[in-house]
Amino acid sequence: MATASSRDEGLLEAMVAYQRGDTEAFGTLYAVLRGALTGYLRVLARDAAVADDLLQETFLQIHRARHTFQPPRPVRPWVYAIARNVFLMQRRAAYRRGRHETIADETMPDVPVPPEVESLGDRESVRNALAKLPEGRREPLVLHHVVGMSFKEVGAVLGISEGAAKVRAHRALAELREAMGVAGDRV
User: Fold this and answer.
1) How confident is the prediction along the chain (187 residues), in pLDDT tens digits per residue?
2) Burial (CB count within 10 angstroms: exposed 0-12, middle 13-18, buried 19+), residue 21
């Protein structure tokens, strides 16, 4: 099984090759990042079809902004920051168009449950409680516990400090505990 640092090293190599014009390297980036990015965008968008559209737009923006990537910085925070900005642009555009759609609970995407919160309750209850968290808390929790980013990387994606990322994720876990009726700091 590949370690996080070896996966990140492979991403860095692919990104540098892509910056040099190797189009096959883009395929590698897409293959490695697609699954996790789709999950992240589904958590943000709360709609699988919208998330798929956002994924395509994210990779288009990665292509357009590839010259701005600065090796040897890690690739994943840079990519997730682009994905987050694509989501925010879509949300602003939808707001301007006056679209205030609500999503029925049955259309909520299946949000992965972080191992740290599995003990709180069944998967469905945790998924529903996670979906109800404010975006500002849900995002750091998902990026750290589901995607596996360090708090430093989470901070880079969200444009906040590492400490703020930790605080937001901790508060999200506390809110999940409260919503699930679990006491204590066990999780």
Assistant:
1) 455 565 678 999 999 999 999 999 999 999 999 999 999 999 999 999 999 999 999 999 999 999 999 999 999 999 999 999 999 999 988 887 764 444 444 444 455 555 555 555 667 777 778 888 888 888 898 898 878 899 999 999 999 999 999 999 999 888 888 888 776 554 4
2) exposed
CATH 3.40.50.1000 fits 1-109, yes or no: no
Structure tokens at 136: 């500002």
CATH code reported for the domain at 111-181: 1.10.10.10
Most distant CA pair in the chain: distance in Å?
54
Domain boundaries, the chain: 1-109, 111-181
Cβ proximity of 20 and 12 under 8 Å = no
Contact 153, 74 (CB under 8 A): yes
- Full-model pTM: 0.72
